[in-house]
Amino acid sequence: MTWLITGGAGYIGAHVAHAMAGAGERVVVLDDMSTGVPERLPDGVPLVRGSLLDRELLDRTLAEHAVTGVVHLAAKKQVGESVEQPLRYYRENVYGLTVLMEAVVAAEDVRSFLFSSSAAVYGVPDVELITEDTPAVPINPYGETKLAGEWLVRATGRAHGITTACLRYFNVAGAARPELADTGVFNIIPMFFDRITRGEPPRIFGNDYPTPDGTCIRDYIHVADLADAHLTVARRLAESDADGEDEGIGAGSGAEDLTVNIGRGEGVSVRELARIVAEVTGSGVPAMVEPRRAGDAARAVASVERIGKELGWTATRGVREMVESAWEGWLLHHPEIRTR
Q1: CA within 20 to 30 Å of 251's CA: 1, 28, 83, 287, which one?
Q2: Which of 142, 169, 209, 220 is catalytic?
Q3: Is 142 annotated in the active site?
Q4: Residue 70 in 3-state DSSP?
């Protein structure tokens, strides 16, 4: 097969590209380079620069590279920004996906589609572990666009015999290698790093939640584990499609509507995470507590039973490894820190 990875030059996308290409899969990347970095890509992987809104480019890319499967990661993903710019998020995340799905259906040779979703589809459920059957009630436009994307992918797959999967992943962190590290300051670990390297205390939003230490509890997944999960699911989709054709029952019968959480199934409090970050970075700056942020759940931890049972996949890297690898990447991209 040949896989098109949209958003493949981004932080998560590049890890997926490395995992799939390193396992012998043929890969081509499409990225509008709004957050992508071409140097992240594996040697020999073609890069097509352009937007999902460009139907002509999509048609040409799918045909010229003989694409048979798509891993769709390209999307806008900042929760706060989505509240401020809902029209932009629906255009990029939902309309962009619509254009891509139209091109996929027209291409006919694309038989597998893996959609990068998010735990944001669940909103703030009051449960110990979030299963794939937990009601999806997103509380911001970003989560809404991801849920709408799932609906669109599943419906298109059923209608056109395309095997599909939606991966709902939780808090992504770490780096497989320093040059692939997250360079943005939008997720909690880079936010901690940014404050520490500026001599400012890391911020903890709220310490009065009904948790053991009063701070929010989250499920963190190493980006390398996440990339491996993409590879595992993509191969299952391809196998299911092939099995359906061999049995004469049509493509898409084996793995339609596969929806799985991607996490570790273990919770870590924000205060505990701050402690690990302080140890790894050698920071002596204590964290400061600020008021709660609207919409933060006290606990959001994945049940990972389904992906373990159905695909035999499990995460193997812990939180300290995430922080250590992320810090190595932070130092690489901020060389001035080493000279202080």
Answers
A1: 28
A2: 142
A3: yes
A4: strand
